[in-house]
Amino acid sequence: MSLLLDDVTLTYPDGDGRLTALDAVTLEVPAGVLTAVVGPSGSGKSSLLAVAATLVTPDRGRVVVAGTDTGSLDQAGRAALRREKIGIVFQQPNLLASLTAVEQLQVMAHLSGAQPKAVRERAMALLDAVGLAGQAGRRPHQLSGGQRQRINIARALMNEPAVLLVDEPTSALDHERGAAVVELLATLTEERGTATVLVTHDRTHLARTDRTVVVQDGRVSEQALA
Ligand SMILES: Nc1ncnc2c1ncn2[C@@H]1O[C@H](COP(=O)(O)OP(=O)(O)OP(=O)(O)O)[C@@H](O)[C@H]1O
């Protein structure tokens, strides 16, 4: 088991009271499984990702990442766990304008003090895995939106995370490029054995995911495969 949310409740301050964003959510995501999370705006999808990423601490319940109960960690411990075990892909790639494709990946590992040669080899292998080996020397403005999102995904995999959390990666792409990104996520999840959670608005992508979870008013329910 790579990611477990166990009876997680998250509330935010709301006027004099509290707003319940996640309401006793239990979700297990095994290694090698691509789980889609869908639901209306404001239903709690981003909150679920933020809790899974250990960026937000729930009021109640357990978040277990690659066997570690994150409730037992202090802030530094959670930061280390995020660096080592969790890959996060946001909606917008947020690539650094002055760096080439391969450097966008290398910078991640340099931060954690790995050997430069091994880091470059790993970065090139990942660019190859996302179909961009030939674009390694290009800067973001020389790449398409779909290519930038592929680099974003490759960058999130640099530290070989057990858990990959992906927030609306296709929202800035046309349908065909979006479908190709979801296809890539499915392949990488299977090959690398990540426990992948994909938040998406686009239900046409669900055919390519292993499983769909619906969030409604902060509660999750399983949906049969489409
Ligand atoms: N920092 C915050 N403070 C207060 N309330 C918040 C905060 N973040 C989210 N909420 C509220 O919590 C609920 C769940 O929000 P969340 O962002 O998780 O939904 P979502 O499903 O990701 O929505 P969307 O699809 O629009 O991104 C909403 O009612 C939202 O208004």
UniProtKB/TrEMBL annotation:
Organism: Streptomyces solicathayae
Lineage of the species this protein comes from: Bacteria, Bacillati, Actinomycetota, Actinomycetes, Kitasatosporales
Keyword annotations of the record: ATP-binding, Nucleotide-binding, Transport
Extent of the signal sequence: none
Domain of life: Bacteria
GO MF terms held by the record: ATP binding
Protein name in the entry: ABC transporter ATP-binding protein
ABC transporter domain span: 3-225
Key word Protein biosynthesis present: no
